[in-house]
Design a protein that fits this description.
Layout lengths: L1 E4 L3 H6 L1 H13 L3 E3 L9 H5 L3 H14 L5 E4 L2 H13 L4 H12 L1 E3 H8 L8 E9 L2 H6 L5 H6 L3 E5 L15 H4 L1 H17 L4 E4 L2 H13 L5 E4 H5 L5
Parallel strand pairs: 1-2, 1-3, 3-4, 5-6, 5-7, 7-8
Helix pairs in contact: 5-6, 11-12
C-alpha cells in the first residue's frame, strides 16, 4: 500500500522524530511511504483567524502537492481535520471542488489509518509503564476518532493505561486561541495537567502535537516528572 506522509508544521518544525516514528510504523506494517516535498501548511491558522482568501491559496498548493497520492496519512488529528474540511470550503468552486473532495476522502489520521484501513489492532509494540491518554478536541469532535488510539495502545505489551479524569475537556491550546486568550488558555492547561497528575501515570500520550506541546510546556514549568509522548513514538517501540 502506497502512503504519502503529511508531516504537519508543528511536527516538522518541533518534533521531527514523530515524523520518523510515523514512517517507521507504517513501513513495519507493509506500507511504502513517500514524502511530497512541496507540501506546506494546511492553512488552518490563517483560516481559523478569518483570512479565508489567503488560506485558500495554501490549500490549493496542498491539493496539488498530494494530487498523485493514494493515501495521505498524518500524525495530527487537527491538521487532518483541516484537509478534510477542504471539501466544504471549496464546495462552491467548480475548479477546485473535485480536487478538495479527492484529498479529503484519502486523508487519514495515523491511528485511524492503522485500525480502520489496514485493519491492524496490534503493531507488536513493547513499552513498559503506566500512561494516560489525552483525547484532542479536533480529533474526537471533528474527525470522530475516539476508539482507534485506545485500540492500539491496549495491545502495547507492558503498557498500562490509566483513565484521564474529565478527558473530554480541552487542554486550552486551540491554535491561535492560546495566543488571543492566553489567560484563559493557561487556566485550562493547568486544569488538564492537574488531572494528568491524578492518574499517577508516568507518561501522557496523545495524537496531536499542538496539544502535547501545550501540555508538555505546562508540565515542564511545574517540574512534573510526567513524560509527554506522541502515540507514534509509543507504537514504534519494539524492544524492552
Amino acid at each position: 500500500m502506497h502512503v504519502s506522509l503529511f508531516i504537519t508544521c508543528v511536527c516538522d518544525t518541533f518534533y521531527p522524530n514523530v515524523g520518523k516514528d510515523t514512517v517507521e510504523v507504517l513501513e513495519d506494517l507493509g506500507c511504502e511511504v513517500d514524502f511530497p516535498e512541496q507540501q506546506t501548511c494546511c492553512g488552518q491558522p490563517a483560516y481559523n483567524s478569518g483570512y479565508v482568501s489567503d488560506a485558500k491559496q495554501g490549500m490549493k498548493h496542498m491539493m496539488d502537492a498530494f494530487a498523485q497520492s493514494n493515501y495521505v496519512v498524518g500524525p495530527s488529528g487537527s491538521c487532518v481535520a483541516m484537509l478534510r474540511e477542504y471539501a466544504h470550503i471549496f464546495k462552491d468552486d467548480p475548479e477546485w471542488k473535485c480536487k478538495a473532495t479527492e484529498l479529503a476522502e484519502k486523508t487519514y489520521e495515523l491511528s485511524e489509518f492503522i485500525v480502520d484501513v489496514l485493519g491492524v489492532e496490534d503493531v507488536a509494540a513493547v513499552f513498559p509503564g503506566t500512561a494516560t491518554y489525552h483525547s484532542s478536541c479536533h480529533m474526537t469532535r471533528l474527525l470522530g476518532i475516539k476508539e482507534a488510539p485506545f485500540t492500539l495502545l491496549q495491545h502495547v505489551k507492558g503498557l498500562t493505561m490509566a483513565p484521564l479524569p474529565d478527558a473530554e475537556d480541552c487542554c486550552g491550546f486551540g491554535g491561535t486561541f492560546a495566543v488571543k486568550n492566553a489567560a484563559i488558555s493557561e487556566q485550562m492547561v493547568q486544569e488538564k495537567c492537574a488531572h494528568v497528575h491524578e492518574t499517577s501515570a508516568d507518561y501522557l500520550i496523545g495524537a496531536d502535537m499542538g496539544c502535547l506541546m501545550n501540555i508538555d510546556g505546562q508540565l515542564s514549568r511545574s517540574d512534573s516528572p510526567v513524560e509527554v509522548l506522541h502515540i507514534a513514538s509509543v507504537l514504534n517501540q519494539r524492544t524492552t
